[in-house]
Design goal:
Elements: E1 9-14, H1 21-30, E2 35-37, H2 38-44, H3 51-60, H4 73-80, H5 84-107, E3 113-117, E4 132-137, H6 140-151, H7 155-164, H8 168-174, E5 177-180, H9 185-199
Parallel strand pairs: 1-3, 1-4, 2-3, 4-5
């Protein structure tokens, strides 16, 4: 008897700050869909004991380490701000390691499809790992309002974050599916469920 193994296909899920991508990802998870968070992978590769953290400390100095040996992210951001060569060195070190960590977790997924959640899915080329892209979109005014309420950030700070992220147009150009999240949470859950049942009909090419 031949046993048929269905390999999960990969859905990339992204969106600008305050769009609601995390809430959407959480509801997919509640529906039994595995997901890999690129932000978690990025934090894991610089944990104490990981070779990347040793390399970072050797390059930038021990000031980028906290007393407990953790990475001092604020200090590192200060050191690479306005220093393109240092930022490029850091990206060249970390991006391959993050991609490797993401791929490792994606390969262990057990659900019919698996989601790669990443705010920088387009910018870092992580979308190339996926078979389909879902963009959670929202009007910029709503993104700003949500982020200010959630993080206690100023409007100027939110504008700076928006400018650093991929443009809305670029995200939408890459999208196979767009969910405009401009209503309440129950509506978002309903839309996620609608997409989920559609995604269950798809298979990896």
């Amino acid at each position: 008897m031949t046993i048929s193994i269905v390999i999960p296909w990969i859905l990339g899920l992204t969106g600008g700050i305050g769009s609601g991508k995390s809430a959407a990802a959480q509801h997919f998870l509640s529906l039994g869909i595995d997901h890999v968070d690129a932000d978690h992978a990025a934090r894991w590769v610089v944990k104490p004991g990981q070779p990347a953290l040793t390399s970072i400390a050797a390059y930038f100095g021990d000031d980028v380490l906290l007393p407990d040996g953790q990475l001092n992210r604020a200090a590192l951001r200060t050191l690479i701000f306005g220093a393109p060569e240092k930022r490029r060195w850091l990206e060249a070190l970390l991006h391959p390691l993050i991609s490797e960590e993401i791929r490792s977790h994606l390969a262990r997924a057990q659900s019919p499809y698996v989601i790669l959640v990443s705010p920088l899915l387009i910018e870092l080329g992580q979308y190339k790992m996926t078979q389909r892209i879902l963009v959670i979109d929202a009007p910029q005014s709503l993104q700003i309002q949500r982020t200010m309420q959630r993080d206690g950030a100023s409007e100027q700070q939110v504008h700076e974050i928006l400018q650093a992220q991929s443009s809305r147009k670029d995200r939408l150009n890459h999208a196979d599916d767009v969910l405009v999240n401009d209503q309440d949470l129950s509506w978002l859950h309903g839309e996620v469920e609608r997409l989920h049942y559609f995604y269950l009909t798809l298979r990896r090419d």
